[in-house]
């Protein structure tokens, strides 16, 4: 088969990384680059000289591209993706898919109606380390999952149109859904507005997700931390795993914990058995997650298969964020995730 012709829209921070990957792939042709800024276009074009350039999105839709990759501000995702789907193009949209569940569902339904691939840039679902953790959970290495604690923090990058939860938490929400294979029933969120006070844009958020079987996940996201942190801890009844995305050993399994007593004891008899077993570094066959994601788009287009990060996963993530936003603006009250 001939290479899939791809047009990348948005050449700011993330778009050039997507363009580089499609430029390097044998079964994809980076046919077009699109951005409102001619300066940005020229900068990216130096590394991808085969791509034609335009500042008009509709120029791209009048070409023979097969797929449109959208890496523009979040507020533009829905409109651009809908136009691309209506023109018969497959789409890969950066996270989050849209600014509301209604919009996200509309895109997922439109893609299904037209028989088109619609994917979301939930890159961590394609991360080999995340999938190594998922394998541990599925094999029962951790036992019953008790709780999950995740931190995603750094200094910036501040966004003018979304808060830190909509910017960073899509990663962690998609990871949690991917790892647990189920959706949260309720959420709550609290945060602070420290810098962009006039715009009332939260730069710190504590997000709690309540899953079936009593599993709770706590996610902290911040644009204000001086040290970059990308760490998730999954505590189970048998073992605990720590996934640190910026560590050399990204997945470490700890045989440490507390044995649950199988009988009722009185306060006078109270004692628990602590387990202090070894640490095991889990080998990860590392590949760049963004490359795996881009390859998955091409695979789904050529085979008709669905991606783990398809538009319906995007709908689930937006649904959680929308419920969390309601909580954030309502004093952190715990509320349902509508289905």
Describe the protein.
With 339 residues, this protein is α/β, with parallel strands linked by helices. The chain has 2 domains: 4-124 and 289-310, NAD(P)-binding Rossmann-like Domain (Rossmann fold, 3-Layer(aba) Sandwich); 125-287 and 319-336, Dihydrodipicolinate Reductase, domain 2 (2-Layer Sandwich). Helix content is 32%, strand content 29%. It has 9 helices and 15 strands. It has helices at 15-24, 38-45, 57-61, 77-86, 101-114, 128-138, 164-180, 289-303, 311-328; strands at 4-9, 28-34, 52-54, 67-70, 90-93, 118-120, 145-155, 186-192, 204-210, 216-222, 224-236, 240-244, 251-259, 273-281, 335-336. The strands form 2 sheets. The protein has a 9-stranded mixed sheet with strand order 14-13-12-11-7-10-9-8-15. The chain has a 6-stranded parallel sheet with strand order 3-2-1-4-5-6, sandwiched between helices. Helix 4 links the parallel strand 4 (67-70) and strand 5. Helix 4 packs parallel to helix 5 and helix 6 crosses helix 7 (164-180). The protein is globular. It starts with a strand and ends with a strand.
Structure at a glance:
The protein has 339 residues and is an alpha/beta fold. It is built from 9 helices and 15 strands. Helix 5 links the parallel strand 5 and strand 6.
Comma- or semicolon-separated keywords:
nine-stranded mixed beta sheet, 2 domains, 339 residues, Rossmann fold, single chain, globular, six-stranded parallel beta sheet, 15 strands, alpha/beta, 32% helix, 29% strand, Dihydrodipicolinate Reductase, domain 2
